[in-house]
Amino acid sequence: MKKSILLIAAVSLAMLSILATSVLAVDVSRGQFYTEEEYQKLSGKEREAYCASLASEKEKQAAMLDQATADLDGAKASVADLKAQLKEVDAELDPIETRVAKLERDIAELEALPTEWTVKRGESLSKISGYEEIYSSPVLWPRIYRANRDKIEDPNLIFPGWLLAIPRGLPTMHMVMEGEYLGKISGYWEIYNDWRQWTKIYEANKDKISDPDLIMPGWELDIPR
User: What DSSP string runs through 101-136?
Assistant: First the structure.
């Protein structure tokens, strides 16, 4: 019943508003209003139409305000939801950023390490390998030897002034030298440090290896990572 009354009232106001626009010299919907002096000069019918027009505009503005308030509440709810999601993302991002920062520091430290070394008097491959800026371990000297076999014939005999390559990172390629076989190559610490993983090298190089027991010096083998 109340809804019907409200509906009738709204229709009546709308009709009065339409009627008012035809009788009044001002358009309230456009922000036009009578001054007090002008209002006093209106006829009874014009005053009634003016008041109806004001009431209609007031109702329209109230409806617009209600809609704007509802839209604002919805926007606030969306913002609150987005903030909650952002907080969750930040919580996940923080440890990732910490790990990235550590990796960047580690990379910077690695890039600062020497990739060449000039032999000094009294040095040996194991002594050089043991330096902190090289490998921090004297037992890792064979990698320096393998990387410099073009000049080192006897690993126990190196000379001051020689410029030795100091390989970094894990190799993705290996050139076969005399006396090497897949198991031996796989056992090098910079390769897999495990002779039993020779099958990885074999599978990655089937285009050139027909017999895994027969590899030739000078072959460049892919080392899968």
Answer: HHHHHHHHHHHHS-SEEE--TT--HHHHHHSTTTTS
CA distances from 209 to 10, 201, 205, 221 (A): 91, 10, 6, 9
Backbone φ and ψ of 181, nearest 5° = -140, 170
- Residue listed under structure tokens 């072959």: 219
Tokens found for residue 82: 């987005």
pTM recorded for the entire structure: 0.54
The encoded tokens of residue 40 equal 């006093």
Confidence band for 19, pLDDT divided at 50, 70 and 90:
very low
Q: With contact defined as beta carbons under 8 Å apart, do 135 and 147 qualify?
A: no
In this predicted model, what pLDDT tens digit does every residue of 125-157 receive, in sequence order? Answer: 999 999 999 999 999 999 999 999 999 999 999
d(CA 21, CA 188): 96
